[in-house]
């Protein structure tokens, strides 16, 4: 009884159950456990009849899952709150006494929510995901970039990083990368806001080079 | 003791990314990765040096390949610098070996498929060899451009 009551509270607090139904989306498959019709919703769903956790949707819209507007501008605090409340609701620890199927679904939900949070939190992956949702073809592995002034800049930062021998020079490079990423994030925001998806794609490709540099910098900093 | 500790620290220190052998690279790739040929730079402002700078936007790798050409149009030296995965490093290292001694026109005929075949690159790494081919082409195009502008300034000098 206690578990059921707690779930009911959670459900009410998160308000998944009825919001989707009110929007009148097409009904999905029934509850796997008792066969009852399920409420619509974007987040993890529990059966109203038997309380069973339902499997995640096959390809959920991560913005809807995380209760965010489909936009490059994101409210990071709200995203984090949503992330925490979702994780609280589906955390595998809560399902230790439940049937194996539900334990499995809770793991799937939990990992999907982690993935969604990371994708939406990081500007590069968020931008790439937005492009994907808009049907823009992603940059191909075989695409070759020849903006030589830009590539020269990337080459030089790579060289500096490879040669960096002390904390100071590493910190200097770290600041440089951060500044560049912030500048690019602003430009990407502007590009998405005027719906210039091709420009956004170009800028995100530039961000990828800096993300790469950031990874290398982190790898280099670990031993210290 | 201190020396021992330092050696231990060096052993524990992770390389940037996993070692190529651990990722199942072919031994030819590992050889080029561990003993890269012709790493370095040539004077990019020299008139007989062509510089090709290319990047792979999908993975963020950058590759620089330079050629030095003598008065007979023969490539006498080549250097590369690549910041990328083991396959990208091996592809550009091999590319510098192959262009040396060739004429500009012969070097233009090097295909990425030849590089991939020589290094036994798996399909997912074919783009690394494409990057190397693009880098050769970019370096030779840069050299040719310099030669043309050279000739033009010579003409102007003659007319003056």
From TrEMBL, chain A:
Alphabetized UniProt keyword annotations: Chaperone, Cytoplasm, Mitochondrion
Annotated localization: Cytoplasm; Mitochondrion
Among InterPro entries, the record links this protein to: DnaJ_domain, HscB, HscB_C_sf, HscB_oligo_C, J_dom_sf
Q: Which GO terms describe its cellular component?
A: mitochondrion
Q: Which Pfam families match?
A: HSCB_C
GO terms, molecular function: ATPase activator activity; protein-folding chaperone binding
Presence of the UniProt keyword Cytoplasm in the record: yes
Query: Does the entry feature the keyword Chaperone, yes or no?
Result: yes
What SMART domains does this protein's entry cite? Answer: DnaJ
Q: Which CDD domains match?
A: DnaJ
Q: Which GO terms describe its biological process?
A: [2Fe-2S] cluster assembly; protein complex oligomerization
Q: Domain J: where?
A: 61-133
Q: Which family does it belong to?
A: Belongs to the HscB family.
HAMAP family linked to this entry: HscB
| PANTHER family named in the record | IRON-SULFUR CLUSTER CO-CHAPERONE PROTEIN HSCB
Name the chain's protein.
Answer: HscB mitochondrial iron-sulfur cluster cochaperone
Q: Which organism is it from?
A: Cyanoderma ruficeps
Q: What is the lineage of its organism?
A: Eukaryota, Metazoa, Chordata, Craniata, Vertebrata
UniProtKB/TrEMBL annotation, chain B:
Question: Pfam families, alphabetically?
Answer: NifU_N (PF01592)
Residues covered by the NIF system FeS cluster assembly NifU N-terminal domain = 25-148
Q: Does the keyword NAD apply?
A: no
MF terms in GO: iron ion binding; iron-sulfur cluster binding
GO:BP terms for this protein? [4Fe-4S] cluster assembly
Look up the record and report any one GO term of the cellular component aspect: mitochondrial [2Fe-2S] assembly complex
Keyword annotations from UniProtKB, A to Z = Iron, Metal-binding
Q: Which family does it belong to?
A: Belongs to the NifU family.
Q: What is this protein called?
A: Iron-sulfur cluster assembly enzyme ISCU
């Amino acid at each position: 009884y206690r578990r059921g009551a707690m779930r009911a509270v959670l459900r009410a607090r998160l308000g998944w159950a009825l919001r989707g139904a009110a929007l009148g989306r097409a009904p999905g498959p029934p509850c796997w456990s008792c066969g009852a019709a399920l409420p619509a919703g974007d987040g993890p769903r529990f059966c109203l009849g038997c309380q069973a956790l339902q499997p995640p949707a096959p390809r959920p819209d991560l913005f809807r899952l995380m209760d965010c507007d489909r936009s490059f501008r994101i409210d990071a605090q709200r995203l984090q709150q949503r992330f925490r409340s979702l994780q609280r609701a589906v955390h595998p620890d809560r399902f230790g006494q439940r049937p194996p199927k539900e334990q499995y679904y809770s793991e799937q939900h939990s990992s999907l929510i982690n993935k969604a949070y990371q994708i939406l939190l990081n500007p590069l992956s968020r931008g790439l995901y937005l492009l994907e949702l808009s049907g823009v073809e992603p940059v191909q592995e075989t695409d070759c970039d020849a903006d030589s002034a830009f590539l020269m800049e990337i080459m030089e930062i790579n060289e500096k990083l490879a040669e960096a021998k002390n904390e100071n020079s590493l910190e200097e490079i770290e600041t440089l990368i951060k500044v560049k990423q912030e500048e690019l994030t602003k430009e990407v925001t502007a590009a998405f806001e005027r719906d210039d998806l091709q420009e956004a794609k170009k800028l995100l490709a530039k961000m990828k080079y800096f993300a790469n540099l950031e990874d290398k910098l982190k790898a280099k900093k670990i031993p210290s | 003791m201190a020396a021992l500790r330092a050696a231990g620290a060096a052993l524990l220190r992770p390389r940037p990314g996993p070692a190529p052998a651990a990722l199942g690279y072919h031994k030819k790739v590992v050889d080029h990765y561990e003993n890269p040929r012709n790493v370095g730079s040539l004077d990019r402002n020299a008139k007989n040096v062509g510089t090709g700078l290319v990047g792979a936007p999908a993975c963020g790798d950058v590759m620089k390949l330079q050629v030095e050409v003598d008065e007979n149009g023969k490539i006498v030296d080549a250097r590369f610098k690549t910041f990328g995965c083991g396959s990208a490093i091996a592809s550009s290292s091999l590319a510098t070996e192959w262009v040396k001694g060739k004429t500009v026109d012969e070097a233009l005929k090097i295909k990425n498929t030849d590089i991939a075949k020589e290094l036994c690159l798996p399909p997912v790494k074919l783009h690394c060899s494409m990057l190397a081919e693009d880098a050769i082409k970019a370096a030779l195009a840069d050299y040719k451009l310099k030669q043309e502008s050279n000739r033009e300034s010579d003409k102007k000098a003659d007319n003056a």
